[in-house]
Amino acid sequence: MGREGEVYKTLSKTRQPPKVRANSRIMSFSQILTHPGGSHKDEFLACCLLLAEHRAPIVRREPTAEDLADLSTAVVDVGHEHAPERGNFDHHQFPKDHPPICALSLVLQHLGVYEDAREFCDWLEPTEWFDTRGPIETARWLGMQRETLFKLNSPIDTTLLRRFGAVARLEPGEALWEVMRWIGMDMLGYIKGLRERMNTIKKVGEFWNIETPKGAFRIFYIPRTESLLDDPSAGMSRYISMQRNTGDVAGLVYPDRRGSGFGLSRYNDHPSLDFTRIQGCEDVNFAHARGFVAKTSATDPARLRELLKLSWK
């Protein structure tokens, strides 16, 4: 599992269904309606998000005028109307030159998490492009061949979309309905959890400037805090990437969740930090043979800085 996946798992696995925003609290959907036939990722995920907040059945058919007017029915990716105040989330009526935005985007906006989703979910913008521009333009935008794009398809996606496309109605308690709700809950949990973590990291984190005879480098450090104890390092790399002028950041220092000391690691696998250089130090409990991470019992920032200097080559 990659680092992004580890962060996603950490931030979503223990969270309860997210609290709804004011506009969602006013609206209580008793039915979610989307188009029949073949299913695509945008309306599938849009429905997943709505299920996280509304324990409603999903109906797959063309909407009527009554459906579009019904405040208790969410109409997703069909109906040629974007009217979130009435629970209608379609994008097909937008002009050809409209920025790439799909039904999933509209539901994320409705839930008040779209900007954070664009910031934290690297897959969202390609999903918007694929749904509104198709595979050829999306591949061109990504700078890859169309064939390469399709090589990234997952059998998980294929099976879930095929099974969803084959049903006319899904009720709470059915296996696919429950899986979709899990997906929606985890998506919202990840986005909201990572925003909370970014806010905490911003408050407590520090950039250290380290000077050595061999050159200077920067380190991002976070102290031990109660709010980050579940996985102290989760979100650090994402936070750094969101800042300006971080090209000289070489490493991370964060509380060790398995001990009272700290972890030291490279940032973006910086080649000049080699933690095997400190493996003989009495207060270094572990240094990976490839030199990219170490654990120390040291807690004094001055000692941590010293270990970083010794690791620089």
Structure in a nutshell:
It contains 12 helices and 12 strands. The protein has 313 residues and is α/β, with parallel strands linked by helices. The relative contact order is 0.11.
Task: Describe the protein.
With 313 residues, the protein is α/β, with parallel strands linked by helices. It folds into two domains: 3-197, no CATH class; 205-311, Roll (Diaminopimelate Epimerase, Chain A, domain 1), CATH 3.10.310. It has helices at 3-12, 22-26, 41-51, 65-69, 103-110, 114-120, 124-142, 146-151, 155-165, 175-204, 236-242, 301-311, and strands spanning 31-34, 58-60, 73-76, 82-83, 88-89, 169-170, 206-212, 215-221, 249-255, 262-266, 284-287, 293-296. The chain has a six-stranded mixed sheet with strand order 4-5-3-1-2-6. Strand 9 (249-255) and strand 10 (262-266) form a beta hairpin. Helix 1 packs across helix 10 (175-204), helix 3 (41-51) packs parallel to helix 5 (103-110) and helix 3 (41-51) packs across helix 10. The longest helix has 30 residues, at 175-204. The model is unreliable at 12-25 (pLDDT under 50).
